[in-house]
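Please, structure for the following, as tokens.
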Amino acid sequence: MVQRCATTGSTRQVLLIVSMSYVTSPAFIFRVGRCPHTLVTDLTRSSRRELTGATFANNFRNATRKTPWLSSSRYVHNQAFRPSCTRHNSSVDAPLASCPSSQPSIREPFTILFCGRDAFSCAVFKEVHKAKDVWNGLHIATNSDVKTGRNGSRLDISPLKTLGRTVGVPVHEIPKEKIAFKHWLPPPPFAFQSSNGDSDPLVSLSDRHLLITASFGRILPVAILHLFPDTQRLNVHPSLLPAYRGPAPIQRALMAGESDTGVCVIGMGEVSRKKGKAVDAGGIWGVERVTIPENANFLQMQANLAAHGGKILVQVLRDMRSGKAQRIPQDPLTPATPRAPLITASESLIDFASQSASIIARLERAIGHQRALTVPVGLPDGRSVTIADLHVVAPELRSPNDLASLDGESPGIACYSSQTKSLLVTCADKTWLSVDRLQTQDKAILKAKEWWNGVKGMGWVKEGRFQFSR
């Protein structure tokens, strides 16, 4: 297919139509019918008639009114085709271009489906909710309630669900089961059931519909992504992409001892290992670098990055409405690019002989909110010990008494410091770790002095030192 501007006469070879299934897709009809200055030549017909984009779209709409895509969501989007009017210089990477001659310069506000679950999601959502100029409809999709605890005695409710109901926004629960989630579709106005009773939905693709995810924790099925224009699927990711792609970017940045990180608003596409389509690989609409304060922990950075992310997201939405938004591709991954895979249980296990005090302290700040750091076989009787409230003891702050007890000792030797009221433990690289609270397996958590008195009473303290088992 050749695209030509009726005013300037300039042409652009865009797509040779060889498949009727593509031109009858709703994505094609929305995009080709946007600007009356765009002329289309259909090369599949011998006459090669030249039509305006709107006429071309209407002709195919009328001719294919009974085709499968009108009663099924199982159609294929060819996202590579984005017509633009050469007269108006529409960017192929901008949101669907608004032709100044046919539409106002400012687009109408969006109808937004916001997917999330946790405190990060809530902070981002609050910024969007406050920005009344960017939306005229706002819906939440979040996890269903889950029974947790012993015998399901506690009900785990999504914080975003609670927030949505508090502010009066419609909340839609997503099924927990993978199979049910795969076939789940959002409610109207994003998708409608067929009026003839068919099980397949009648898809409503609108250039005003916009999808946002923020710490959603689940990969959206392709069927849901295809309900939205490809330039209007946004994800708020707390890292400077492509660094720390994955589900644990904040934790991984803290564990690595990074001095700064950031937050990006990126596009979303299909995720498929077979097709080589990675998670968090979309083009970047907005980005901001954020400093990591010394000794900052996960919860502090989560709140900080969410606040920045919400503000960047709102600015991107405003730029989309005004036609200023631009999307740039991410830098390519290299072997040195850090990743952010899920935190595993084994990563919370401490080995004083191989880990320095700074590594252990960073680990607590990164994952202590979700997993307790544990010395697997901490006591001579084989029980484990969890440690909390950790600090690195700088060499210049070591008291003479503590030096007398620990100086030159091998990793895993501990003594109680009356000066700091904490347990001091030697670690790798001749470093010291201060521990304020400890918990023996199957016992209550105790302050360092109480725990020390307990192991001392068991006869495990020799000459003022305790040896953590290896």
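Residues 110-191+203-322 form a domain with the Rossmann fold fold (CATH 3.40.50.170). Confidence is low (pLDDT under 50) at residues 1-50, 63-104.
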